[in-house]
What we know:
The structure holds 2 protein chains of 2 kinds.
Chain A: H1 13-24, H2 29-47, E1 58-59, E2 64-65, H3 79-96, H4 102-112, H5 117-120, H6 123-135, H7 141-149, H8 152-157, H9 171-180, H10 198-207, E3 211-213, E4 220-222, E5 232-233, E6 242-243, H11 251-264, H12 267-281, H13 288-304, H14 310-318, H15 335-345, H16 355-371, H17 403-412, H18 429-433, H19 442-453, H20 460-471, H21 480-489, H22 493-510
Antiparallel strand pairs in A: 1-2, 3-4, 5-6
Chain B: H1 2-21, E1 27-28, E2 31-32, H2 38-46, E3 54-60, H3 66-69, E4 70-71, H4 76-82, E5 94-97, E6 100-102, H5 107-114, E7 118-125, H6 133-142, H7 154-162, E8 180-182, E9 201-202, H8 206-213, H9 227-243, H10 247-256, H11 268-281, E10 288-293, H12 312-333, E11 340-346, E12 366-371, E13 378-380, E14 398-399, H13 400-410, H14 416-422, H15 445-449, E15 450-452, E16 463-470, E17 474-482, E18 487-496, E19 499-506, E20 513-521, E21 524-532
Parallel strand pairs in B: 3-10, 3-11, 7-13, 7-14, 8-9, 8-10
Antiparallel strand pairs in B: 1-2, 4-6, 5-6, 7-12, 11-12, 15-16, 16-19, 17-18, 17-20, 20-21
Helix pairs in contact in B: 5-12, 10-11, 11-12
Amino acid sequence: MPSLSTYSGPWTETQAAHLLRRACYGASAAQISQVKQQGLAATIDRLFTFGPQPEPPLNPENGLSWVDGGEGFDITRGQQYYNNITKSWWTKIMIADGISLREKLTVFWSNHFATEMSVVGQALYSFKYLQYLRENAAGNFKDMTRQITVEEAMLVYLNGNTNTKGSPNENFARELQELFTIGKGAEVGPGDYTTYTEEDVRSAAKVLTGWRVDRRSGKMVFVATQHETSNKQFSGRYQNRVITGRTGMDAGTQELNDLLDMIFAQNATAEYLVRKFYRYFVNSEVTDDVERDIIKPLANDLRSNGYAVEPVLRRLLSCEHFFEDAMRGCQLSSPADMIIGLMKTITTWSAPADQLLAHRFYFGFATAMASQQMDLGEPPSVAGWEAYYQEPGFYHAWLTTATLPLRNGTTDAFFIPNRNNDRKVLLDTPLFVKTFPTPDDSLALIDHANLLFFAIPFSEATRMKLAEEVLMDGAKYYEWGVIWQAYASNPNATNTAKVKTYLDRLFTYMFRMAEFQLF
Amino acid sequence: MKKNIKNALNRRQFLIRSSGAVSLPILLNGLPLKAFDGPQLQRLFNTQEEMDRVLVLVQLNGGNDGLNTVVPLDQMSTYTSLRPGVAIPENKALKLQNDAGLHPSLAGFKELYDENKIGIVQGVSYPNPNQSHFRSNDIWMSGSSADQAESTGWMGRYLNGVYPNYPDGFPNTTMPDPVAIQMTAVVGLTLIGLQHQAMGIALQDPETFYSLISGNDTPGSDLPSARYAKDNVIYAREIQVKSMEYSTVIKAAADKADNLVEYPTTNRLADQLKIVARLIAGGLKTRVYVVQHNGFDTHAAQVDADDPTLGAHANLLAQFGDAIKAFQRDIEALGLAERVVTMSFSEFGRRVASNLSLGTDHGTAAPMFFVGAPVEQGIRGTSPDLEDLDNNNLKMQHDFRQVYASVLQQWFGADPSVTRDVLFGDFSTVKVIKGGGTSSVQETKAASTFALHAVAPHPVRGETNIKYELHTSSTVRIDVFDNLGFHVATVVNAEQAADSYQVPFNAGSLPSGTYYVQMRIGRESVAQPMIVVR
């Protein structure tokens, strides 16, 4: 039986690493052992203690600010240039964030309240939108829904901008219900989706008329004359609620509040978000037991505390069910899980000091994720990434015959000198393995790498295979000690090159294993 | 053999095309194409390469005990006294001839020997043998001398000469299939080409691969027990196989043919060979397969205390012999007997005297096996002389590079000039393939008059040293070329007396990359690669 009771089983590196993997993409060995020391409760507190908001990115070509009217913004460079700066900066922040849920949640919201930078077409809107999501990452779901409804990026993306009295545009009103809040249930009658109906889409669109982006200022405004002032009738799915038509400058806000009160009064809305949290942080399969024992109680929590997400996430990430053995490796890693996770786990790399090279360095990760079908800020549609909603495959979407070679290419590149970074490698294996507790013991080395980089434990056969067939290329596992000791006592070029050959072979292979794809 | 001619033509066309039109670096046999003079290149065109012959390399990892594998029946008393409790009793050995008998676990080999399908080369090693597994494996796999640090493999260099530019432009119509396939987790040094690229692919997990091509829905054993993780690993492995380069051609080949004999079970070598047979029969043009049989490092409990014909080594040899026999029978049943030869090697043999743990320590020379219908049956060399030892170890009768040169020339039809480049010198050959000649004519000619060693330190950061030896006074020219064949520097151009020389070379101004140090005396030349890093 899946249980929401606070987990009270063994608290070892295994549980610590599992929590850090799911909550913050991954962690260094030192962070894992800290979390093991501090215990579950203290760690959960820490996950919700966010650092200060990161400073906005500068234009790497001139070091000037380009947001909020800064001089670094040159319209002739095109929007994509600035979107790329945002992506590079975003990637850097994800890697730099420590034991904190903030970045994993920011990506969650950017997927949940999906917008696409290229469609929005204004780098400043997208940047501001992202800042809002990060600031409110563990905030209030209802408040966030209210704000994103009138964010410039969303007004442009889902055409709220052109939703006017004379010609309502239903795009946002539909996605608001279908994807952002209550979720679409089974179609049980013509235009009736169990949770809402086509009539509700039309009525909600009328509620939302009048919001637009002012061309001159580039800011959101409410234009009362474009607002539909009649009463809005909703279906039986919303208890036949009528939202009273308002007039004047506050009409838009008042009716939006009424609309959200109505939608958020429904159990289905809380359940929809909790299910989405569950699929993101725990497992794609929502069994009947999970629905009854995890989703429903957490949804009740969410609704009863006014849609603050923190208490719900605290329970979810500390419950018995989250720490069940079966939950380790039940996901396939997203490109962000894999790449950000590697960068957070490997502690021996350094980024270029030069700001332009640093921009390219971090943008390289964003590009790698993009080619593996997770382009931050550019989900494939308003529904977000398929891996989080598309039944029955879910996470399988991350791993296809097209993406696997790219994933392999990305991990292989961790061993190749980087032209943009003084020819340094991301994973300098001798240097990194030197930080291991017992680097001269091949099996202990492999066990430690197992803990750091894999969601599931190796079998005995796999351990031996990695030690003898891969690391030692056919020789006995214990022969490693001699090679490592020679290097440790005299790290000259020859000895370093030798251990590097062995270790690069091992790590390259491990990062190509099927098991490495599990998360 | 119509197919041979067709393939040979293809090769010529291919070489002509690549040397004429392509401006990318083309490396042949250790030196850039542009550095070859006309006649040398012409010789390569004339080479009658045997393109449909397959060589299977069996690596016996850990150092196989040669003396208990091929028992010296002519020296039983010395052998038994040096190896109390470990020596194979005379009456248990499977007698091949008066001075040689096989370990009783090798019944499979005996059967093939009696059918004239086994060749044995005795006493294979190299000068100044190294008793570190790693170093000795590196030497065997790179095909270099004991004092040479070489980061490319002998077969990789050979195949790279045949398939210049690989992997750029591959697969192509000439070579639609992997050039070489290693049936283990990683591609080993043996197959590393001139640009440090793998000249073949590793079938990461043969067992998984086999179950997938067999339509088995649980790829591989060793799956996690937790349900979701298990499903995910199976899914990821399926994607791995489907997305592997060449997976389509490999699967198609495997689907086309079936094994026609039963292979032994719980035998990892047999598991690998079973797939090799199927892929060859299915029509892959792959030239070389590498399989591994691990665990020969028998320092202790090599034999059972109460019966030296049982124990760890007996089990290893039984797996070896049984797997090879099944493979050979399969190859015959599949009609491939004339196309496939198997060669085994190990990084070293073991000490002549056993130790006190019923085991044997690292040694030197040991026999190599050739298996197949085209193999020249019988034993090359003599029973190792147990009275004439070198520091308690057997003396070398054959340099392993003689055996490599022999198999490349006699089985693949490589020109001696090619094997000279591949093996960094001339090595006389031994007869390992029927109809193959032995050559004593050019016996280590280059090596006997001069030698060029690997530069040290290597790779080169700034300054390094070029070391060489002259055995007779000669006019020596040493040049450095970059990997496009452009001349970079002349290091030596002088008449010098017989001696050992060391010349400093400053690579500080050179961009990072692969260079070649070429030493030339008259018409003879040898080369050593030089990696410069900055």
